[in-house]
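Chain A, query sequence.
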Amino acid sequence: MSKSSQFDSYLTDDGPAALVVREHLMPVEGVDGVVFPATFAAGDGFKGGYNINTFGDPKDGKNICLIDSVGSQANRIEPMFMREVYRGLVPQIVIQAGEHEVNLLEAGHRAGDALARCSTLQQELQEAFLAELKGDCEPLARIAPTSLVFGVWDSRDTQAKLPRLVSSTIRAFDVRKLTRGAVYIPPVDYTELDVFSEEDKKKAEGNNKSPLAQRGFVHNPASGAHGGVIADGGIRRDATLGLAALRHLHAGDSVEKTLVLRRYILGLALVAFTAQPESYLRQGCMLVLDPSQAREFREVYPDGRREPCDVKHDVALEFAKQAAKEFGMGENRAVPFQKERAQHDVKADDAGKAKSKRSKKTEVEAN
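Chain A, predicted structure.
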């Protein structure tokens, strides 16, 4: 069997629906260590803070806490293709915006990001998304192949939408939420230096909204802040490589080109899927494998069978290199961000919203 065809069983309709990984994690301090989950802004009835779903009687302590979302995980994994060992697998497209240079692999919305849409890539990307809507993913794969791996939605233009093939989420179970307190003490008494009066000092101390407190000139206590969680039920990373979804990718009507495209995207997906996950997520959240619990790696078939999977990262990498060579990877390039495109984009969006409001008003009046 040639290197380029060794994973063709994953591309056939009777192949696995997905590869799945389940890893049990723990804080570097130990299984009973405190870990800081992601915090989210308030909205839609959510008060803001940690995302914790409680089941049954809250006193029972049964809940699930989101440590790192599927979107956050994708944005952590994708930039790995900027590293020297992987950078030859995908085009390195850098968008130059003033003094900033941003690799497309770092853009949160990938090929659908405003930064890319308002660069000289705009027309090329638009044509690629339109081709995808007609069943040809090859043009997009030559510009931004990881958009086919981690998902993309061209929500501001063509509405082309591709699902994530590789998804990963980290959750903690049966958590106890902690709070913490702190106080800032300035190194000197600024009233003695006649920076402000004693009266101003008394008004500012303990008032987080006071300019004096915000700028660090007075005592500033902080109580009841988020203090992390202890996961009594453990922490788990669940990851999926959706092979059934990958088999929906086409390069137009060509069977041969479609196979080459799918091999290329599968190679990238396998490299991302088998890579060692990042341990550091944020301050207070550094997670490693729990050696007391086995890691699960399975091929899951449409009939429910779950077979062991042993795809190693180095094997996936060699396959991806061969698949990229046969596909004919897109070129590396630097493209400029164009302020005029961004300004036009905003104006066009405002005009579209105004038109939509007028249409709705006319419809209401007609009824």
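Residues 175-228 form one domain. The CA atoms of residues 24 and 293 lie 6 Å apart.
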